[in-house]
Amino acid sequence: MRSPTMPSAILTERSSNMSTKPMSTRKMWWIALISGMASYIDAAAMTSSGTALVLLKDTLALTPEMIGVLSSALTFSVAIGALFGGRLGDLLGRKSVFIATMVMIAAGSAMLVFVEVFPGLLAGMILVGLGAGADLPVSLATISEMAKAGLRSSMIGFTHFLWKIGSMVALGIATIVGSMGQLGAQILFGHILVVTLLTLVARFAVPESTLWLEQREAEKAGATSRSDAALGWTTLKTLLKAPFAKYFIVLAIFYTLMNLGSNTVGQYGAYMYTEVAGSSVQVYSTVKLITMFLGAILVLLFMRVVGTRWRMTWFVGGAICTITAMCVPLFLGVTEGTLNVMMFLWLIGTVFAGEGIMKIWTQESFPTLLRSSAQGAIIAIARFGSSALVLVTPVVLATGPGALFGFLTGSCLVAVVLAFVVFSRQRTTVIDQEEADAAAAQDAAVDAAPVRVQG
């Protein structure tokens, strides 16, 4: 797969206007942290909202229907935000979008902290969801385009580590403030507000993606009119054309099917422990905390191996764990013991064969001016799919949990086999090819430049 080669004239101009000093590894990791905070905030918002709404239930007289609307609004807003935010990131640039998204999240979080009426809470949930969803694909594109090839996979994997930390911190705060009523809810949302404001300030120092600037200028130079500039590499329809359609469709199917299991375990874990297995919330909470801590450690291992030739070996191991996880309650019944085994196996499996590897494959498989759009569309499709399953999960569990776990087992099997068939054969990546083409064109431009003779 090859990307458009940049005209040498543009590269010569870019090289004369930009510093040639390479970015230090330390600065790369700092930018990865600041950009990756989108994952932290997304996880913290999702984890905090459930507890916070329960704490607000009596104080603000929220009915079950209102709580359902608020929870759904957050989920759907994340999906919509990812779809449109990713596209805007490709059209307008990375920095402008991920500054605007932090402002949206800060405004929404402030409303959730201080507003005490349902319409205000709904508006706050929508703003937080739209901002978090829009930020995710843009922040990932920023990291992948800033990082050098040897660190790119690890840095994208680092965002998954931040997601785990965000969820753990929010769960820890919820444990402490769980008996404080409205004040507890305000502390939960206030945590998101403070982290968002700190991230916003730090992001002003993050430079625009050089690769995006170069590709955008090359596209403009090759366009003869404004209508031409809207065609080709910047057209969203390109995702459904060769050579990118294969990767887009497979990644959308893979992440959607795997996310069905993750969403079920995450949102209905407590329900399955208490209502189906006859266990308790305390047991579920303990198991969840242990698995989350273990997951954060395993993500550090994932960061070390995902950029090596052993990537697919670890993926296969993770895939086996995810399928086995759903098979345990399917064949042995839903008990406290089988759910414990399922939680641990699912945790291990999804670290190496879940969202983390999806993010890396997406960043590698699409050109700069489509990268953020592709990531956003894939996230949106998966979130919409999960929302649909969430609506019927309680009914399916009531009629017979075997049907649910049979469906999830089949979903995992299809997802991992499809991903393995496509990505085990991938030998080159688009982003590496873009960088190689740009470097070659720049070298050619330098060689062709007239030599100034000192007299």
Secondary structure blueprint with pairings:
Elements (H helix, E strand, L loop, with lengths): L7 H10 L7 H35 L4 H29 L1 H21 L3 H29 L2 H29 L4 H22 L6 H13 L3 H4 L15 H32 L4 H25 L5 H22 L3 H18 L1 H11 L2 H32 L1 H23 L6 H19 L7
Helix pairs in contact: 1-17, 2-3, 2-5, 2-6, 2-7, 3-4, 3-5, 3-15, 4-5, 4-7, 5-6, 5-15, 6-7, 6-11, 6-14, 10-11, 10-13, 10-14, 10-15, 10-16, 11-13, 12-13, 12-16, 13-14, 14-15, 15-16
Pfam family, one: MFS_1
GO cellular component, one term: plasma membrane
Keywords: Membrane, Transmembrane, Transmembrane helix
Descriptive keywords:
single chain; 455 residues; mainly alpha; Growth Hormone, Chain: A; 2 domains; 17 helices; disordered N terminus; MFS transporter; membrane; MFS_trans_sf; MFS_dom; MFS
